[in-house]
Amino acid sequence: xxxxxxxxxxxxxxxxxxxxxxxxxxxxxxxxxxxxxxxxxxxxxxxxxxxxxxxxxxxxxxxxxxxxxxxxxxxxxxxxxxxxxxxxxxxxxxxxxxxxxxxxxxxxxxxxxxxxxxxxxxxxxxxxxxxxxxxxxxxxxxxxxxxxxxxxxxxxxxxxxxxxxxxxxxxxxxxxxxxxxxxxxxxxxxxxxxxxxxxxxxxxxxxxxxxxxxxxxxxxxxxxxxxxxxxxxxxxxxxxxxxxxxxxxxxxxxxxxxxxxxxxxxxxxxxxxxxxxxxxxxxxxxxxxxxxxxxxxxxxxxxxxxxxxxxxxxxxxxxxxxxxxxxxxxxxxxxxxxxxxxxxxxxxxxxxxxxxxxxxxxxxxxxxxxxxxxxxxxxxxxxxxxxxxxxxxxxxxxxxxxxxxxxxxxxxxxxxxxxxxxxxxxx
Length: 427
Hints:
Elements: E1 2-6, H1 13-28, E2 34-38, H2 44-52, E3 59-60, H3 68-71, E4 73-74, E5 79-80, H4 85-95, E6 100-103, E7 109-113, H5 119-123, E8 145-146, H6 151-160, E9 165-169, E10 175-180, E11 190-195, E12 212-217, E13 231-234, H7 240-251, H8 257-271, H9 281-294, H10 298-306, H11 311-314, H12 317-322, E14 325-330, E15 333-341, H13 345-349, H14 352-366, E16 370-377, E17 382-389, H15 391-396, E18 400-401, E19 407-410, H16 415-426
Parallel strand pairs: 1-2, 1-11, 2-3, 5-6, 8-9, 11-12, 12-13, 15-16
Antiparallel strand pairs: 4-10, 6-7, 9-10, 14-15, 16-17, 17-19, 18-19
Helix pairs in contact: 1-7, 1-8, 2-10, 7-8, 8-9, 8-10
């Protein structure tokens, strides 16, 4: 069973580092075949941290849909197309299967050997030892699958198919193995651990098809019911990396210098170097413990993270908004809130029109009631808000609206603890 540890889609540094560090801790505890993944583009700040601390970067994975390659039976016997029909039938009989795939010398799939298709040769009483498979009427299976096919897309057709197993090929047409029909009815060969979120709607695509066995988070609880008991750890702290660090200490497991640096990166990025109102004494205490291991201060690491070009400068508007975007549903209302850190708000002001257009596009594409972008200057403890959509919500916001349509938000740094509650109150 493969276990993926993933943060929310449109990942930030806290979600990346908490998944990465938790995977090491779970391996230390004895969990096998566990891997941390980044559900989307690796944030530039996270990339800087991996390079700075000389740590192998996290695996980027766009979805966790079960694919044919996850359930294929590899090493399944096949028959070389150059052998005689008689030898092929002997191999088929010895295999105990009703049919076998036939391949060319280079491994490319040619067809399925099914005895019924060879009936004309028996009727004509030809010498089967002198006829090669290449000259025989092979059955070309209509159920040939590609290893990258999503199981959800072909499951129904496969179950209705009269054949019991299907050949699987790679992108070059080479035989990978076969899939038995019963495999489509079995449980997925993967499971999930969620960090820094607990809403499936915010998780990596395909998460709704896999069992969740654990959740570690510091946000509001919106997790759906489960069939079986799971581990669930949540706390009111400023960073999920803080919770993971506390788990390291509870296990008596000291992280490496590099891992300690990555955990500090997650804590200071999510707490804005302890300036965010979400910051707690626990965040500071865990960071102080990590500093002793890492040999670098939280302040110097934060300076390195903020030296990376912001999303507004480094990305086009659509990618900038997606860089840290979360979707919410409150009753019948659906909305999205994005946040970007930017120490030069003039860069934001230059892009208001293009960012507004992208928010409008997001609203149409995702059928949202409204969407907003919060741009935060952590050095001055100040944010500005670009709001698009439902006017009744806009009018209820307790912020000063400027002539250019932006809302001024002095002292507001946290989307979770300061902006979201005002949005919910407005609703």
